[in-house]
Amino acid sequence: MAPQIEVPQTVEWQGKQVPVWSMSTIDYGLLLSQDPAEVEKVVKACLEEGYFYLSLQNVDGRRMLGDQQDLLKLMHRFFESPIEQKNEFGLISSHLGYEPVGSRTGAFGPGTKDGYEMLKVSRDEIQRGSPKVPSPVKNSGDLSVLENNIGSCNTICKVILSALSTGMGLNGASRFENSHRNDRPSATTLSMMHYLPEEITGTNKRGHQKHTDISSLTLLFSEQWGLQVRPPGTCGAREMGFVAPKPGCAFVHVGDSLRFASGMKFNSCIHRVVPFDPTEHRYSIAYFLRAEDDTMFQDSEGRFITAGQWHDEKFKAFTDPWQWQAMAPKSMILGGMKEDGADDPEPTEPSKVPSPVVKPTELTSVAVNA
Ligand SMILES: O=C(O)CCC(=O)C(=O)O
Ligand SMILES: [Fe+2]
């Protein structure tokens, strides 16, 4: 049979054609029953790319999609509230509380600031039944929405972890689930993000800096464009490209902790968020499943470090001014993942509104017989 060469779809952004990377779609229903072929497929996606779509369009997953729609409504109401109410407690701890726009480095690197505000709710606090959330989202209906989302996301992540353990031949205490037990303290968190339009933030506060996540697994939901990933590999042409929002699916990616726990076999995903349409408000939801604080692993520098320490060090690097970030080892922000090829150049016309050349619904990967 002739070899298959995949031609990436592209989308126009800032006056040039940028790839839209294709990726595997894993079926949550099949994973739930540990279907051997689906287990093999998810392991392959983590070993080769470090990311995949998870289809939730089945009887078990649709529940989660409904929870997520309720959360979007809550987010709209929260982010429209006055800043004094949103910032009532500030950032209580690194994985819990409110961060205003411009707290970190932005999508375009040193000297820029991020363009999003964020509310994080800790899973441990929800489990204890006493989450410290700002007053606009403190009534019992809101707390149920937060709890339902955290519960659903946690279940989904555990199903994925379990499939990965099975696929990697892990047994007993060495299975990944065993370092993600619900009753042990962790920095697992539900993060709600609102990216503001450029006319509010100005051109110096845009997007979300390039990084790998601290987490073991990240479950990401956004109906809007903006997320970019850099596929791993040795081909220099593999640049940052967009992840097309796929209806009914979450985007799942491997973070540093699971990469370390897999002995560097899994790739963690280098990603950032850019202002795809600088005039729009963008909303995204990320569930960061993190390992128990005491979990010990070897990081990309070969240091023995606990998940809690890695979280604290990397969180500090995320929030440090860019001059300090530049002095931190590169293995911190990118979790030791190597980059191939060059980033896209600094934008010259930041306010230009890009338009997709392909509509999201038309996006499919194209296979060409060579
Ligand atoms: O907003 C997004 O789509 C991604 C956010 C992200 O990468 C993060 O919070 O770590
Ligand atoms: Fe991230």
Automatic annotation (TrEMBL):
Protein name per Swiss-Prot or TrEMBL: Clavaminate synthase-like protein
Keyword Nucleotide-binding set for record: no
Family: Belongs to the iron/ascorbate-dependent oxidoreductase family.
One Gene Ontology term from the biological process aspect of the record: small molecule biosynthetic process
Residue stretches spanning the membrane: none
Keywords carried by this UniProt record: Iron, Metal-binding, Oxidoreductase
Top-level taxon of the source organism: Eukaryota
Domain Fe2OG dioxygenase, first and last residues per copy: 186-291
Organism: Lophiostoma macrostomum CBS 122681
Region feature Disordered, mapped onto this chain: 335-370
Entry-linked SUPFAM superfamilies: Clavaminate synthase-like
GO function terms (MF aspect): metal ion binding; oxidoreductase activity
